[in-house]
Write a structure and sequence with these properties.
alpha+beta; Cyclophilin-like_dom_sf; nucleotide-binding; 2 domains; about 15% helix
Length: about 325
């Protein structure tokens, strides 16, 4: 069978399985978000384990993995969330390059830690590039497999593996993704944090916030902290009546808005590029992977940091990626 023939048949799609890579850059000003894997580190790790370029397209599996049939032999790896892969019913290791025989079925156990696993196949998922990326942006119905999540009956092609793909290669434990049940998310205060009442500006960072069931690739919503109160103001022309409204502004990925002061929302990789809610802060880039690995009802605390701290955290994140490349390159 040639590599042009489908390698993967989707028996069960899982909860929200989609094709993702590093994402598409340079179009956010046109309203097209980057998309891409919510855990970018796990994406790189999975691809390096199977000998792919670290930005090759993978399947991002959310909370409940898919069931897939492989029409020919393949090498796979599962990183990110602890979601034990099973080949023909036999449990296998995460963070390891695994051989899948022709005709075998791949399924997954219940997620034990984290929310999103990256399933890489040697050769990478072969779907057309749209604006320089194979990532799925479901709201815009672009990229990925027909611009949507996977469905039963889909058949996916995979590219040609690189020579020398080694079964059994494992990720060193110190370089595996960490998915604790409670997270500390570092935040640089936003352009509109001055709109909060002083006691609310303090309580936002003091309280523990729980992920709601509505959390998704567009935005992670949190609850159970104290309601946040905004400074009284005269409604500006072009802004909504709620005190949390502003005249429309651009949203960076990771920005935090609190509609009506009730439930903070962290905008993630499929978020719209602007709107009319005050951004009280932005989760630093080094912590965005952590957000995507949070399950409903898990808790986060927000920590106010300076821009200098955020830049150092970005350096540390990149240094960890370099250690990953050195270990698996």
């Amino acid at each position: 069978m040639s590599h042009d023939e489908p390698l993967i048949e989707v028996i069960k799609p899982g909860l929200a399985t989609s094709v993702q890579d590093r994402g598409r850059q340079g179009y956010y000003h046109l309203g097209i978000p980057p998309s891409g894997a919510l855990d970018q580190y796990a994406l790189a790790a999975a691809n390096l384990l199977v000998g792919n370029p670290e930005d090759a397209a993978v399947l991002e599996c959310t909370l409940m993995g898919p069931e897939l049939r492989f029409t020919r032999a393949a090498v796979i790896a599962v990183t990110g969330a602890t979601m034990t892969p099973k080949i023909d019913g036999q449990a296998q290791a995460c963070n390891t390059a695994l051989a899948v025989p022709a005709g075998a079925r791949l399924s997954f156990d219940f997620v034990q830690a984290g929310a999103r696993a990256c399933l890489a196949i040697a050769g990478g998922i072969d779907v057309p590039e749209v604006l320089g990326s194979r990532s799925t942006y479901t709201l815009g119905a672009i990229g990925g497999f027909e611009g949507r999540r996977l469905q039963a009956g889909d058949r996916l092609r995979v590219g040609a593996p690189r020579p020398g793909t080694r079964v059994g290669r494992a990720l060193p434990a110190a370089l595996a993704s960490e998915c604790p049940k409670e997270q500390v998310l570092r935040v640089v205060p936003g352009l509109y944090d001055h709109r909060l009442m002083p006691e609310s500006a303090a309580s936002f960072y003091e309280d523990a916030w729980s992920v709601t069931s509505e959390a998704d690739r567009i935005g992670y919503r949190y609850k159970k902290g104290r309601a946040l109160k905004f400074q009284p103001r005269e409604q500006p022309f072009g802004a909504g009546a709620d005190p949390s409204n502003i005249v429309d502004a651009c949203y960076p990925i990771g920005s935090i808005q609190v509609p009506a002061g009730v439930e903070p929302i962290i905008l993630h990789r499929d978020a719209v590029s602007g709107g009319g809610y005050a951004m009280i802060g932005t989760v630093i880039s080094a912590d965005l992977d952590k957000v995507g690995q949070m399950q409903p009802n898990q808790q986060a605390r927000f920590e106010r940091v300076t821009l200098e701290t955020a830049l150092q955290a970005r350096k540390d994140y990149r240094a960890r990626l370099e250690r990953l490349r050195a270990a698996l390159g």
